[in-house]
Amino acid sequence: MGNATAVILAAGKGTRMRSARPKVLHEVCGISLLECVVEAVQNAEISQIIVVVGDKKEEVKDSLKGVSVGIVEQQEQLGTAHAVLSARHLLAGLADVVVVLNGDAPLVKPQTLKRLIAVNAEADADVALLTAFLDRPEGYGRIFRDAGGRIKGIIEESEASAEELQIKEINVGMYVFKIKSLLEGLNEIAPRNKKGEFYLTDIISVFYRKGKKIECLAGTNTAEVLGINTQKELATVNQIRRDEIVRYFMDRGVTVIDPASTFIESRVEIGEGTKVYPFTYICKNVVIGQRCCVGPFAYIKAGTKIEDDVEVSNMMDKAGLFSRIEG
């Protein structure tokens, strides 16, 4: 994976979040959406990461301080293809592949990125894209195939006919391109849609017309495709990620008495044999040793370190408030 470059699109306004905070800085289990995507890319052993910023760019750039990424600015929000073009000067001198993905898809797994890169390499494709089949594909672009089953294009939902909206195969928004093919294709994208924006999805129909090789990987974990556009979707993804974290610790010998009432954020360490009681909240960057008892009604503040064989018995105090363990 060492010769792959990633371009993470984090320039959108996220108006449907109805929040002053940039969309990609909303958090899933204590970590921003953008941080989740950057971590997945890093864990996929991709050598170079470029983040495209735009709306509220200074806040997004500040969030990336100390993170080994390049940052480019999309001066105007003219669509996803235009966002990728903002990084053209950094891509032009490269000869390998580029992974393009969105900064608001926090559940993407490193293994999926590796598999998509492998599909592209094995097929020597101009592009390999991730697709998925959803029973309720609302909100996603649909994969349009020709009579022979080859991918012919991607139809954005806002542009689709009633018949096209019945298609269950959706575009996840994750691609691996040959860099030369990507840059050539971007030059041929025109704003032919209702919004007057340059859609990266249009590059698939450009490739099809030119006889370029288009491959796909059908994802099996539908949670990975979930992007965030609303507060409701953010809550859904938080629940999925919280369940993943709790299962991870239970598989490693941690007893969680009631997973439904236990909240553990990302980047937490808990030793084998520790028992976590209901209504416990453990913040990010907490380290808990082996054979501890935590809770019930415990709030463990970020950065706290608890040694082996410690009992954190944070019951409600006389005022009816939660007591806290702070680092």
Can you describe this structure in just a few lines?
By secondary structure, the protein is α/β, with parallel strands linked by helices. The protein has helices at 33-43, 57-63, 80-85, 88-91, 110-123, 179-186, 202-210, 231-251; strands at residues 5-10, 27-28, 31-32, 48-53, 70-73, 97-102, 127-133, 142-145, 151-155, 169-178, 214-218, 255-256, 262-264, 269-270, 275-276, 280-282, 287-288, 293-294, 299-300, 305-306, 311-312, 324-325. The protein has a 7-stranded mixed sheet. Strands 12-15-18-21 form a 4-stranded parallel sheet, covered by helices on one side.
Notes on the structure:
It is a single chain. This protein has helices at residues 33-43, 57-63, 80-85, 88-91, 110-123, 179-186, 202-210, 231-251; strands at 5-10, 27-28, 31-32, 48-53, 70-73, 97-102, 127-133, 142-145, 151-155, 169-178, 214-218, 255-256, 262-264, 269-270, 275-276, 280-282, 287-288, 293-294, 299-300, 305-306, 311-312, 324-325. The protein has 327 residues and is of the alpha/beta class. It folds into 2 domains: 5-222, Alpha-Beta Complex (Spore Coat Polysaccharide Biosynthesis Protein SpsA, Chain A); 231-325, UDP N-Acetylglucosamine Acyltransferase, domain 1 (3 Solenoid), CATH 2.160.10. The strands form 6 sheets. It has a 7-stranded mixed beta sheet with strand order 5-4-1-6-10-7-11. A 4-stranded parallel beta sheet has the order 12-15-18-21, covered by helices on one side. It has a 4-stranded parallel beta sheet with strand order 13-16-19-22. Strand 8 and strand 9 form a beta hairpin.
